[in-house]
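Renewal narrative, Specific Aim 1. Our central claim is that a sequence can be written position by position from structural information alone. The example that follows is taken directly from our test logs and has not been curated for this report. It begins with the structure tokens describing the chain, in the order in which they were read.
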């Protein structure tokens, strides 16, 4: 199962651990993903998503239905 947010598409990033002597070793930055169930009253059903905490904050602010509509609108514009 990939470590990718279902809504934002955020995934792992790669970088370096840098020691005091400036030796660089590879490392991976993982997104903070949470398993969450959301109730969508417009569809009268629950959906289960694996979302990043930044997406959770946006959902708390705007609501799940509005956020899904915005994502769909952005995808349609990029095509």
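The sequence written for that structure reads:
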């Amino acid at each position: 199962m990939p470590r990718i947010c279902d809504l934002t598409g955020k995934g792992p990033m790669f970088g370096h651990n840098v020691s005091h002597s400036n030796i660089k070793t590879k490392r991976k930055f993982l997104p903070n993903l949470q398993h969450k169930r959301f109730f969508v009253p417009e569809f009268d059903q629950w959906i289960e998503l694996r979302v990043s905490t930044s997406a959770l904050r946006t959902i708390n602010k705007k609501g799940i239905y509005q956020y899904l509509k915005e994502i769909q609108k952005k995808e349609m514009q990029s095509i």
